[in-house]
Amino acid sequence: MSKHHVSATINGESVEFLCETQQTLLDTLRDEIGLTGSKEGCASGDCGACSVIVDGKLMCSCLILACEMDGSTITTIEGIAQGDHLHPIQQKFLEHAALQCGFCTPGLIVASKALLDENPNPTEEEARYWLAGNLCRCTGYDKVIRAVMDAASVMRGEKAA
Amino acid sequence: MNYIPSDLKVVGTRPIRPDGVEKVTGRAQFGADMRVAGMIWGKVLRSPHAHAKILSIDTSKAEKLPGVRAVVTSKDLPHIANEEAFVGEGPMNFRDLSRNCLAWDKALYEGHAIAAVAANSQAIADAAIALIDVKYEVLPYVIDVEDAMADNAPILHEDLFTAGVEPKPTKPSNIAKKVVFRKGDPDAGFKDADVIVEGRYTTQPVHQAYIEPHACVCSYNSDGQVTIYSSSQGHFMVRAYCAKLLGLNISNIRAVAMEIGGGFGGKTLVYLEPVAIALSKKSGRPVKMQMTRDEVFRASGPTSGATIEVKLGAKKDGTIVAAQEILKYQAGAFPGSPIGPGCMCGFAMYDIPNVDVVGYDVVSNRPKVAAYRAPGAPISSWAVECAVDDLARKLGVDPIALREQNGARNGTKTHYGPTHQNIGFLATLEAAKNHAHWKAPLKPGQGRGIACGFWFNIGGESSAGCHIAEDGTVVAVSGNPDIGGSRASIGMMVAEVLGVPAEKVRTIIPDTSSIGFSFLTGGSRVTFATGMAATQAAERVVEDLKRRAAQIWEIPVEAVEWKDGQAVPAGSNAGAFEPLDIAAIATKAGRTGGPIGAEVSLNAQGAGPGFGVHIVDVEVDHETGAVKILRYTAIQDVGKAIHPSYVEGQIQGGAAQGIGWALNEEYIYDKNGKMDNAGFLDYRVPVASDMPMIEAVMVEIPNPRHPFGARGVGEVPIIPPMAAIGNAIRSATGLRMHDLPMSPPKVRAALDAVAPKMAAE
Amino acid sequence: MPTLNYAAPTSVDDAVKLLAGSSGLAKVLSGGTDLLVQLRSGRLKPELIVDTKKIPGIIGISGSAEAGFTIGAATPGAVVEAHAGLNKAWPGVVEALDLIGSTQIQGRCSLAGNLCNASPAADSVPALFAAAAIAVVVGPNGRREVPVEQIPIAPGRTSLAKGEFILEFKLPPRPAHSSDAYLRFIPRTEMDIAVVGCGISLTLDANGTCTAARVSLGAVAPTVLLVQAAADALIGHKLDADTLAKLDAAAQAACKPIDDKRGTIVYRTKVAGVLARRVAAIAFDRAAGKPVVHTH
Q1: List of chain C residues whose C-beta atoms are within 8 Å of the C-beta of residue A24
Q2: H or E stretch including A59?
Q3: Model-level pTM?
């Protein structure tokens, strides 16, 4: 079978690519499109380092076939900042030192954005459960959760950035 | 120069790290993100057997598969003699390392690399792996440490004879080494004791479980020049090990440190790089390799599982008069468990006159262990800190008071040799005693535990530099891969010395051909040792800047002072000149002697030991055995926190790993000696919803051997959690758990054993 | 190398033709959260993947508590969880689906995938069993309605014939004073496979006496179990210590678990009894209209 031709919107831009059936969205983002911000930590949906937002829903790009994506709208970590203006979540991750090695960080930021898009005022417990699919081995999650809660208050307009 | 009492402007603040933005935007390049022109893909064939003789390897079918460009086995690597050298955190036997990268005559664990393929795509490489025909003679295997020590155990290495025993054994054994530390007269000490507690404890191997799998791109040119792009805890380590394993000149290898997605000690060895170089040499193409998560678990190093027997003897007044520990550590398939630090650390926190410690380094059919955060110490302290808690209960005294009474202080001679100087253990205990957590009331069914940890910390060989750009901004260079924020701390120390804001300094990690040798990133040494080199480099630059200013002003250099980032005349006698800042001096550099910069290579000594005290509250579900962590406080003597946020982060992250070790993490083997949980689904690291906030409390007792007083901080926080949680479970339920992990089935079984009625209720 | 084909048909007929006409293994892709892991590990080597998500009606929820709900087989967990009517009438089904994997998995995972993966530990399956859900199966011989408990027959195996797949699930009309609940035990708070799962659906009379109940246990046998003896322990009784003790004993008696990396026989059996009691208490409270705080 020949390769699949897929048209999708990635980070606001129309993208066309060819893929084989078994290629995951993650493989395609990283190896074909050159968006290496989404990471492969497990390839089984257990670590969340490859998190992307597809048609408004948070997903693991390692558990999606690229050929399913025809007509989809995808946001990756590369699409979170607006130009050189960081998203409040990115800014708060920096201010709170919510990253050490930084490998899980893209997935955590994408997942946090999906959280705050859906629930602008989460409790700490809601944030922890929402992010339970994003493993971080460096931080113990403390500063990650603080950064997300702080970003949420900035995005609600309760606090200056 | 020593800045400890100074009024510091940068050190101790919390600027945004220099590599931060590229990490929150997805631009940072980790090992697997690297691509080079003409690159092909390598994959490894791994042993399905725990222990087997390799009778033959037929690669002909794989070689014929279209798209396959090279197949290698151990025959493609030089045969290396049994030789030990110090390049990593401990002695390294390069013959064993080579055999771990590609098996010689035997597969020694499930997952052991047997052969490797390079092909045009990952899919072709995978298909080719399946076409390699290996004939094995399956051998009896041994997994458990005490089984491996038994007389009738299957022997892994016919040429392994126990070191450290006299006379030298004549029969091969799985016991690679016996370690003994003895102080005073332990037998007399126990005779003299009024109270004795003892216990036997076990741990299972746990993996560092960094989220980034090992990955590299290696390119071998026909002239013998090699470039390696990989994520590791030491690109100089990668360079040296690859040179050794492939018989190359070190200077012909250029290793580039990609961003590293977590290491915790686990990336202090090479697994893929030598194989990728061999494949590149054979194929004539750059070769990229990356492990799957399954391979990370099966084939890269966890830390040891162990059994520990501990015994403490004390007088009625609480004075500990004798201590004994017998430690048996799994090394995996090759010698090299962290038995040494295990033997050193357990009792090093206490001033005990009579100590007897015996340790065994034992091979078995598991992956070769690698360092994991304070290698060896958490295992030893798990047993000792539980025993200290039992002793406090038996004596009826407060566990902090007992530790204060017996705690090491300046001048205490450890059982392994050194005498403690400038340590902060008592101050750390004091902070714990005064912390609100220690005094907070508990609800019924809840329990509180406390435990301590010690790590000696290391210094070692480091190189760092400081260069002034033409516009007066600053580049700092560090010879160590940054695994948790060391670029930030090094840049801050340089900024402090130069008197400029942290943002004016950009810190980078050059490749191995662009900076002097640096020992690997491990043992919590980088902010201490490489930071010391960077500080000295910046001081040399300040001296040079003063000299340039003196030249511009035409006054003696002694008449110039460096203040707040500017050269100023030293007093009115020096003359009246407008201050010159770095930019002003830099623009005139061409006329005052050329470019301004310095690089310092040193061997740092005097890493101050670190001590931690952790307090934890738990709640135990008696029906399911589940243990919930309610509150966690980690107190640590950090010397001086250069960037307090990242120091807190180290403490929090280490505690979280310890919580995972305590409650759920373990290697599980099936009845065929194969790992049964090689994935994040069933190797259960803590997730965000498992954790409370972890309050990190920094006690700052400066280390006088570091210009800013820093101590290594990364290792200590993984040591206390297991015993702290075990002690909290004991406080909540009355049960003393002896086996890690304290997983729900084990806790429920222990509860049922003491209250058989409960199950029926 | 063998090629793997992919098709995304837009009608039931086309999907059935593709599945039935495949010479090798053909797999249905709905959420893909199990299928892709199996593909990656090499455990499954299909020749064809049929993505059913473009079939009209396979995603979405219709109906009401009184008339009965219909849930499209490929409806993602996140969509089910956002449905107010289902949350009110079938909180147990919703919470069971919600427990599958992470937020990321919730964006994709489906009831049909969870059922057809045929794992005894699947979280949504005990809740569906307890709910007496009906699977609407389509295939070469047309459409048939099958009680969900007849779909899985062994670990990884279903009763579906070649060419068949599930189009939707029907939940029966809900009488007054009815509710359900699901709990599972896992070592962590998230991201694990159930060591034991338990779903209970029941109806009370005006006095709080149970008039109908279905009790289901997961991960304690080769397939999810429907435990009649446990239901019998509840029917005709109020929520009291004696009833709970009998329920616990009946649940434990039904267990035929294995020792594996996730739990031991002894542990799983004990916890099955514990969960049955806890789930019954929640379901009774919900059916009686008492507020139940939903915690993770």
Answers
A1: 36, 40
A2: strand A57-60
A3: 0.97
